[in-house]
Amino acid sequence: MxxxxxxxxxxxxxxxxxAGFAFDAVLAATLRPVAVPPLSLGLVLLxxxxxxxxxxxxxxxxxRGRTREPIDAxxxxxxxxxxxxxxxxxxxxxxxxxxxxxxMLTRGVPVAASSALPTIVSVVGGLVLLxGGLVAEFxxxxxxxxxxxxxxxxxxxx
Length: 158
Fold this sequence. Notes:
Elements: H1 6-29, H2 39-63, H3 73-106, H4 113-139, E1 141-142, E2 156-157
Antiparallel strand pairs: 1-2
Helix pairs in contact: 1-3, 2-3, 2-4, 3-4
């Protein structure tokens, strides 16, 4: 499995921002109230980011040779998959709610704190989930070895 490319994350962010902006614009154009995410969404995204990074710590210790205990290969694979999924979904959540926030701030009326605060917390939660996924994915890479086995010195996944 390859590392998550920055172009993929940027593309998902752009698409999600446009979708979130359009979603709120369509709601407002049809005279419906704009969507405001619950405060719990941002808090849950922050918690998921912390959990993903904490699950990657044992893999990081084995990969860097800081512990002699073997680690289950299936566990390491699951952590890598969860890290990649977290980075992609973090970019989608953060981008979509970020688009909603941009629409909310560009309207001609003042924004109530009860609407802006949960939206800001959700954007931060999505971006922290994105960063946590990327950090966990990095923690699951094996540093290049010094031997001449022809891999070009590239980091490898556990």
